[in-house]
Design goal:
Layout: E1 3-4, E2 11-12, H1 21-58, H2 63-83, H3 89-128
Antiparallel strand pairs: 1-2
Bound molecules: zinc ion.
Length: about 130
């Protein structure tokens, strides 16, 4: 029966949980940080995830404020995911911690790029006015 390290997903024996002390320490550190910043993360996350559709909803009536709300929400959410890359439990059990953190950071970068695109769209709109 093959088992994988809870942190790096390397194959290990059935009786182990981690392949090395380093992986164990990194996992402990992650849960320490996520416990400390869990509340902050979920509040900021909720505001930003709410802010993006609000900005899009505002857009037909108020183009500039709508774009600003949506792009600022994207920037903050992206930076949050880079600084505090807390994957969902689903992602952790599917990819193991190391890869799940990496994927979360990549999503953060994508959200920042989305914010930049929305900003670029605003400049385009203002120039064509
Ligand atoms: Zn490992």
């Amino acid at each position: 029966m093959l088992k994988k390290c809870d942190y790096c997903a390397k194959e290990i024996s059935y009786f182990e949980q981690y392949c090395s002390d380093e992986c164990h320490a990194k996992t402990n550190k992650f849960y320490e940080i996520s416990e400390k910043f869990e509340k902050l993360f979920s509040i900021v996350n909720m505001i930003c995830v709410f802010g993006i559709p609000v900005g899009i909803f505002l857009f037909p009536f108020a183009k500039v404020p709508g774009t600003i709300v949506a792009s600022i929400s994207c920037f903050i959410l992206g930076v949050l995911l880079l600084l505090l890359p807390f994957p969902t439990d689903n992602m952790i059990s599917k990819f193991k911690l190391k890869k799940a953190i990496k994927i979360t950071r990549i999503i953060g970068i994508c959200v920042i790029v989305l914010g930049l695109l929305i900003c670029g769209f605003l400049f385009f709109f203002l120039l064509s006015e």
